[in-house]
Structure formats: structure tokens, C-alpha cells
Amino acid sequence: MVLGATWGRELALAIAVVVALVLAGAVLAAVHHAEVVAHRVGKPFGSPVLAVAVTVIEVALIVTLMVSGGPETATLARDTVFAAVMITCNGIVGLSLLLGAIRHGLAVFNAEGSGAALATVATVATLGLVLPTFTTSRPGPEFSPTQLAFSAVASLVLYAAFVLNQTVRHRDFFLPVPTSGTDDSPEEHAAPPTSRAALTSLVLLLIALVAVVGLAKVESPAIEAGVAAAGFPPSFVGVVIALLVLLPETIAASRAALRNRLQISLNLAFGSALASIGLTIPTIAIASIWLEGPLLLGLGSTQMVLLALTVVVAALTVVPGRATRLQGAVHLVLLAAFLFLAVNP
């Protein structure tokens, strides 16, 4: 109803605030219905379902803003994907480790599954976001069409291989580690929804995604104006998008950490990071056929330093299979550094 009432109109400030709230509600609704479907298919299949749903929202927002923004949004895909990687690998991971360690003394998880996920994230991030800065076929941090096609195919192949590994071949690597402190809450053992309820949620999920895409297009001028009014760089729009779509993932991961199911939290974090890169870049590559202007994917020097530090710290975190509050604090400080430098580059 809100989408129909505001489509194609210039919004006053009060109306723009209302649309922003409804947009956030549509995102939460979409993720809720994705969780219902995920609960129906069971663990560890649920994490990819939720990650893909969140990534669909992210891609929809990126494409919508790029279509409406023109050539000025050439770096929006890069900024949003990089922000998603930093928020998931530092924000969600750090918060989950900190909450789990405070609540249960030690955060315990499966090193094999988390290490495999992190290795895949590091590879697709390098292929899609780092290499464009150093290729010479095009001036600037831009792939040539052939290079972009290779990066898109490689991202899809790696994402498909990871999902197959997570859900079929080695699914036990991605299940929670049994511990004496695990909170066996009623929610954890709730009966899965019926097929009818899952089908209803699937339909409502599609409706919510349509609402997100439409409302994002309506709200895009207000988002860009708000970032400009705050004096932030235009690239901060990507951070806003990533923060919006990853908020439900953050809540779900934090709840899992408090129940001493850190593996679920890490599945959500690394799975979302991988889906963000592995699905966004191929989609943007296809969309670039009709989008105006260049598609700049290469990271700057500051961003590459943050990405490299994040990969090294995350590797040292997941290899032992357990972590303390210190590791959580380190990741959260890295997130704070990213947000600070996004505002003050």
C-alpha cells in the first residue's frame, strides 16, 4: 500500500521517514519468512536459505540505486559488497564471539567448517574486489568485459561448491559443537512448520522482496540526500545498505551465540559474506549490460589493508576452534575502524 501511494512522487521529509520505516519492516518480514522456510528444510540447509534471501535484498537495493543514480553510482556495488564483508566478518563474528564468551566463558565452534568458509570468502573477495585494482586491460579499478565474466563465473562456482560442501558432502562440519553449556531452549526444539505454512511463507517472502525493491527505489533520493547532508562521502550509501540488510542476520547470530551455538552464528556470518560476493558480482555483471557508466569494483589501498587484516585475524580466530572475549573485541575494533574510515577516508 505504501509503495503504491508513493511510487513516482517526490517525498517530503516526514513521508520519507515513514517509507524508510516501512522499508526496514519489509526487510525484517522477508528475513522472517526466509527463516520459516529455513526451519522447514532443517540444519544446516537453513543458513544458505537465509543468506541467499538477504543477498537478494542487497542485490535488489544495489541495482535499484544504480539504475536511478546513473554514472555517479559506479562504485556502489563495490562499496556495498565490501561493507557487507566487513560487517559480517568483523561485526557479526565479533559480536557473536563476545556474547558467547561472556555468557558461557568460552566460544566453541567447528574449525573445519568455519575455516573452509573463511578461505572461500577470502578467495572470492580477492578475485572480485582486489584484482580489478591491478589489472591493466582497463584504466582504473575496472575489469574488462572478459575479466568480469571470468570473475562472475568463478564466484558462482566457488559459492556452489561451498553450499554443496556445507549441505551435502561435509554437513557435519557446519553443525553446532555439543557442549555442556548449550541452551536447549524450546525454540531450538520447536517442530518445523508444516508444508502449507512453509509455502505460505515462501509466497510472502516473494511479496516482501518486491516491496523492498520498490520502496528502495522510492527512498533512494532520500538516502543519498541524507548521506550528503551528514557530510559523509557518497560511498557511505553502500554502508547504509549493508547495515540495513544485515541487521536481521546480526540479531539471529547474536541469539544463536547466547544459546552457545556459535557455529550457527559463524555459518550466518561467513555464509552471508560469501553470498554477498558470490551472488552480487555475477548479478551486477549481467546488469552492467544495460547500466550506464563504468562498473568500478577494485578496492582502494585503505580498503585492501582492512580486508587483508580482517582475513588474517579471522584465520587466527577460527583455526583453534574456540575463542575468548579478546577475539570478539579485536573483530569489533576492526569494524569500528572500517566505519570510522568510511566516514573519514
From TrEMBL:
- Give the species this sequence originates from: Geodermatophilus obscurus
Q: Localized where? A: Membrane
Sodium/calcium exchanger membrane region domain sequence ranges: 13-167, 201-342
* Membrane spanning residue stretches: 12-33, 45-69, 81-102, 114-134, 146-164, 197-216, 222-247, 268-291, 297-319, 326-343
What is the protein's name according to its record? Ca2+:H+ antiporter
* Top-level lineage group: Bacteria
Q: How does it sit in the membrane?
A: Multi-pass membrane protein
Q: Which InterPro entries match?
A: Alkaline_pH_Ca-Antiporter, NaCa_Exmemb
One GO molecular-function entry: sodium:proton antiporter activity
Its keywords, alphabetically, are: Membrane, Transmembrane, Transmembrane helix
A GO cellular component annotation in the UniProt record: plasma membrane
State the taxonomy lineage: Bacteria, Bacillati, Actinomycetota, Actinomycetes, Geodermatophilales
